[in-house]
Amino acid sequence: MNEFRNISKVGFMKHNGGLEFRQLTEKEYEFKTEIQDYHINAGGVTHGGFIMSMLDSGMGTAAHQLIEGSAVTISLNTNFIGGSKAGDKIIGLAKIKKKTRSLIFMYGQLKCEDKLLASAEGIWKII
Description:
Layout: E1 5-6, E2 20-23, E3 28-34, H1 48-65, E4 71-80, E5 89-99, E6 103-112, E7 115-126
Antiparallel strand pairs: 1-2, 2-3, 3-5, 4-7, 5-6, 6-7
């Protein structure tokens, strides 16, 4: 397996603490972070906006591995399933479902200690 690399150094999620990213297979990628106090909402759990941002960044980074240019998110449908708190280590999975000449279709999920936190389906436009 490939080693994790910190993608915050290239601008992804830098303002939120960064993600580490690695390739698992030709079509599967893993990313991770640790939840910080500033990711927590008034209800005491990780803010949904951060969850979506983590999915978007991890899945988007996976999309960029397939192409020489760039890709932008055109759709990201997210299902919130569980909660997490400060100190939790979150592991994300991005899976390439299909790539056409102009679009990349993906599935993503976030887990904490094997508990599913969120899942997502997304489409990236190759530009």
